[in-house]
Design brief:
- It comes from Clostridium cavendishii DSM 21758.
- Pfam families: R2K_3.
- Residues 220-373 form the ATP-grasp domain.
- It is a single chain.
- With 379 residues, the chain is an alpha+beta fold.
- It has four domains: 5-83, Translation factors (Elongation Factor Tu (Ef-tu), domain 3), CATH 2.40.30.10; 87-171, no CATH class; 201-274, no CATH class; 288-378, D-amino Acid Aminotransferase, Chain A, domain 1.
- The protein has eleven helices and 22 strands.
- It has a six-stranded antiparallel beta sheet with strand order 3-4-5-2-1-6, with no helix packed on it. Strands 7, 8, 9, 10 and 11 form a five-stranded mixed beta sheet that branches. A five-stranded antiparallel beta sheet has the order 20-19-18-21-22.
- A hairpin with a 6-residue loop joins strand 16 (279-282) and strand 17 (289-291).
Length: 379
Amino acid sequence: MKDNFVLKVEEVFDIKGRGTVIAGKYKGIVKVGDILITLTGEKVKVLGIEMLRIIEGNYDERIGLLVEWKEFKKEVFKDKLLFRSYNTTFLFCSDPLNKNKPDMDYIDEYEEAKSNGINVLLFSYEDLTEFGKVNVSLNPQINRVIYRGWMLKPKEYECLYNNLEDKNYYLINTPDEYVNTHYLPNWYQHFEVLTPKTIWSENVPNKEEIINMLKDFNEEPIIVKDYVKSRKHEWYESCYIENPKETEKALKVVNNFIKGQGEYLNQGVVLRKFIELESIGFHGKSGMPISNELRLFIFNYKVVCVVGYWNGKNINEYPEFVDDIIEKIKNIKSNFFTVDIAKKSNGEWIVMELGDGQVSGLQEYDVKTFYLSLIKSLE
């Protein structure tokens, strides 16, 4: 670490006659002439250094750097981390019965990352979620980390982030960036005109609150979910409501959903207008309709790959709709995330869901192709 430098950018401002200054808390050593890099690859050159002090209960060391850069807007640095250099590491959950081996559900991804010469790291998902422990050794070198594993609640992700940061491992998304796509209410405002009408409760609603929510949809069919997941494989029991005005039937579906989620319910209940999508059949077990849906993996606002949502098929191109919404996608403060889109029965495309790219499934997509594409994007 003595040969590196980390700056958490808190402010970006211009000084007349001098140029642009980025300022924030730091550790390590930086010199005039150094080239600093963000986790997504943007680079700046240090032209000057200014030591700053602020008081917030006690003293915190801050630094201001006069910098120059090319090809992107200065706003890109706000709330970013800057380093002199870093290695790239992929993080996976270990096998619950053997902490020296990857979880069997991610072993193919683990081996593929290794085969491409990328560092890999294991941690115990069970220790994190049950005890708040992350047993990772201190690394003398800075590491940019992409987690690929089981979904985490925001508090669990924050715990993982903080523990890794203490050991010089920096996850690609901060806790705030994680929840920006992980929780539907955090991204809905950016796509409101391009996604089904949606309302939500802030916590688990009582009967009266559920009834009031149902009234917003009159007789329009809706689906039930929480901030993250639905129980779509229990389509008629816990997900789909044909007529919200049939209150008793609707309440039964919502309550089935809440009971089924149990301790895994994410924050509150979400009701979304059901949209007729271009059908490709029905699920063999649940009877739920299967539609023409695609999952886009996005790194630094560029499409890494396009996945057929229901079959993992490698899609060589994406619809023009994606190009049309790329500016809206740039409103999402996250470095690595997914956008699920679907084709309506009338041929129009809409946004269905967003998710953090580290915990989004590949849907049986070819692992080798995914890692080749992602690693190329990381370069």
